[in-house]
Amino acid sequence: MGLLTRALLPLIVAMSLAACGSKHEETPRKAPDAPVVITAAGQIDGLRRGVPIDKEASPLPMARVENFDRIRPVNYEMQPPTIPHAIDNYQLTVNTNRCMLCHTRSAAKKFQAPPVSDAHYLTRDGKVLEQISSRRYFCVQCHVVQTDAEPLVGNRYEGLNTTLAKEEKQ
Q1: Cα–Cα distance measured from residue 94 to residue 3, given in angstroms and rounded to the nearest whole number
Q2: Which residues, 6+ apart, have CB-to-CB distance to 89 below 8 Å?
Q3: Which tens digits make up the pLDDT trace of 95-115?
């Protein structure tokens, strides 16, 4: 028996068996009269906001950037702080980082801006650099602008400081 025959034989047998089994006809199922509504009790529906999947939701209003220059507290260790001002026209390219005009160690005091943390001057291996590490250069990969956006879903999250304060009172 040739190589081609041995390769095709299992395929021919499988097709023959499938053809024999296809003579059995299924009785067609009747579609339900009304659409079945499955409620997802306890499920989060933050993105669709209750709009059925086959309908288009009206977009939420655009959130406004808060320009209060108020630094929000962080909720957990190593959380990147949010940006307390607009950055719409800031240039952030390989050659230019507008954020560093105010937030480098040398300029922060002059502009009354918080300097970037020491972690931004470390390599992955912990070596200290004179300039911002290239892996920390693009600020908006971790930091976001503060807005007045309402949460999409309810949230009872409490930061570490709040939790510790409650424990101290008890």
Answers
A1: 58
A2: none
A3: 999 999 999 999 999 999 999
Nearest to 135 by CA among 112, 154, 119: 119
Cα distance between residue 119 and residue 81, in whole Å: 13
Of the segments 52-66, 81-95, 146-160, which one has the largest average pLDDT value? 81-95
H runs (alpha helix) in 46-158: 100-103, 105-111
What is the number of domains present in the chain? Answer: 1
Q: Is residue 76 part of a domain?
A: yes
Task: Supply the CATH number for residue 75's domain.
Answer: 1.10.1130.10
User: Is pTM, for the whole model, over 0.85?
Assistant: no
Please, which residues bridge with residue 145 across strands? 83
